[in-house]
Automatic annotation (TrEMBL):
Protein's recorded name: Reverse transcriptase Ty1/copia-type domain-containing protein
InterPro entries noted in UniProt: DNA/RNA_pol_sf
Amino acid sequence: MCTHMHDPHTTHMNALKRFLRYIKGTISYGLTITCSAASSLVAYIDADWVGCPDTHRSTSGYCVYLGANLLSWSSKHEPTSSRSSAEAEYRRVAHVVSETCWLRNLLLEFRNPLSRDTIVYRDNVSVVYLSTNPVQHQCTKHIELDIHFVRDKVAQGQIRVLHMPSQFQIVDIFTKSLPHVLFKDFRSSLNIREPPVSTVGV
């Protein structure tokens, strides 16, 4: 909504009213944290290439789970335009790999090191291929540093980049408009729900 504040129209006002109705109807919802044996980090990444019709910039998002609990998440418009969908997606992979490395080091400082490698799920096959293919292509020179960074972490056994079909990519909730049923399903997968017991008067 902020991108249209300089020139709002009726459609934008209707969208704002819909947002406010949603917030009012889910005011009691929150992020649920449960006790679980956390043995690994799992990340989901998605980028909606040229998703913004006004600026032609990508909208990207990610979420990172520690065991069954959502630990870190982000959704934002990229500051610059990407020349290809692979560039937009791979830049986000590099960013999330950096984030998960920081989380692994933080857990190590808490004396709770992870015994397994971090799994990063992508719905873009070319990104998965680039993370393990040692051959540098002419069309990927503009993201060469990101590629080398991710490949080094893969070679060290800290990261695995795997493919996941789009219909199971829960981070789509951060980057795309979704059907109502799929939105509710993905929201539940993020552990966003009503509290199991009332906290009124506590």
